[in-house]
Amino acid sequence: MQTTPAIKIKNLSKTYRGSDVPAVDSLSLTVPAGDIFGLLGPNGAGKTTVIHILCGLQSFDSGDVLVCNHSLRTQLNEVKRLIGVVPQDIALYPSLTAFENLKVFGGVWGMKGTALTERINELLTFFGLENSKHRYIRTFSGGMKRRINLIAGLLHRPQILFLDEPTVGVDVQSKNLIIDNLKAIHREGCTIVYTSHYMEEAEMLCTSIAFIDEGKLIAAGAPEALIAQSANCSSLEALYLQLTGKKLRD
User: Rounded to an integer, what distance in angstroms lies between the CA atom of residue 174 and that of residue 157?
Assistant: First the structure.
């Protein structure tokens, strides 16, 4: 039985004004429904541009993009209702409590009343923050803020969750909890699209990955299969360096 892909990208291109080099260059890529999909590559590879396009935050020059079989060009509002976005930057109000922040984000999705309160409490408990819900965000540690950031993207039960470096700058305990919870969310049927510079984490978490560099696809598949097919590579990090080189990307 064939399942409709969560995301299908065909010949996607984007060049920023004032640049002669495309940020995304005729990229074609499929994200299977139900996967934890890692979009990996060095700084400047085009990952952020691709994610911004998929979330409807950035226009593109040419190509086609379908998200849950909805066209980004003609059905953007429908797409936005189906996705959750968790940016790398902490997008919270420091002068509000955790609960107040989540009430605001739930309201953006049209959630209210008892249903919203119950969903907030459910996710706060899931992420180990039920005893901190009335504390101000400005008093939270980096790991606690990162978890609230994640909850904000999950409130409306998205079909696809976009994560940009979800464990950057957090302590080991918070990192392990986030990873375990993402696996649980995935088991419930949510497709996760994930970017990271932590290759060991990506190898452990992702069911499929794509490496991009200079806006182009250079390899895609299951991590273990790609490692097995490569010469002299025993880990995803070794394969990443083999494919992208060791030159610094600043």
Answer: 22
Domain count, the chain: 1
Instruction: Say what the pTM is.
Output: 0.91
pLDDT in tens, 51-102: 999 999 999 999 999 999 999 999 999 999 999 999 888 989 999 999 999 9
Q: What's at 165, amino acid-wise? A: E
| Domain limits for position 62 | 7-244
Query: Nearest-CA neighbor of 124 among 157, 91, 102, 92?
Result: 102
User: What is the SS3 assignment for 172?
Assistant: helix
C-alpha 238/C-alpha 156 separation (Å) is 38
Q: What is the pLDDT of residues 153-201, one digit of tens each?
A: 999 999 999 998 888 888 899 989 999 999 999 999 999 999 988 899 9
Can you spell out the DSSP letters for 50-77?
HHHHHTTSS--SEEEEEETTEETTT-HH
Residue with tokens 């979009």: 39
